[in-house]
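In this supplementary section we document a worked example of the pipeline. Step one takes a protein sequence of length 194 as its only input; no multiple sequence alignment statistics are reported here. Step two produces a three-dimensional model, which step three serialises into structure tokens for compact storage. The input and output of this example are shown verbatim.
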Amino acid sequence: MKLDTKSKLILSGEKLFSQKGYDATSISDICERAGVSKGAFFHYFPTKEAFFLEILDRWLFDLSVKIDGYLEDEDRVSSGIIRMSEIFREIFKESKEKFFLFLEFLRQGIKDKEILEKLREYFKKYKSYFSFLIEKGKKEGSLKDVDSNIISCILISFSIGTILQQIFAEEEDWEKIAREGIRIIISQIEKGGF
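The serialised model returned by step three reads:
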């Protein structure tokens, strides 16, 4: 499949940012890798920061679409949330470049208010989404009467923590740990759970 210029730039940027980091990657590097001119870059993106934000936005949007997909075929909210743990399989199967890109987003968020705001926006979105799911599960009768805000924070903390631990113990079966960890969390709030 032939990629358009914008897609070439995005893929080149993802690769370079994950390998070299944001600061060490120049617009020239991105254009050279993509095989396009600087003029083409500036046709789509006014700055390197805007380019980086677009990559972040696309990555988080794709993640959101995948999360939504795991809930579509499930009758109960609790089953859907447990099934969402499959997203870890995709994250761990994707190249380490995506993982290091995730770390670069976090690192840049510490230094750049606009990037931090984008990360916060998605964090709030995921937190609201999980809170909504917990409330829905309570209404359908599959989940106990729990504080949906706290459970949302626990699910997000577990997810980010599991992804980050991959750095320290690559030999672990993180896919299994993620799946079982989510199952344990949900079993605690499921009606009839332990």
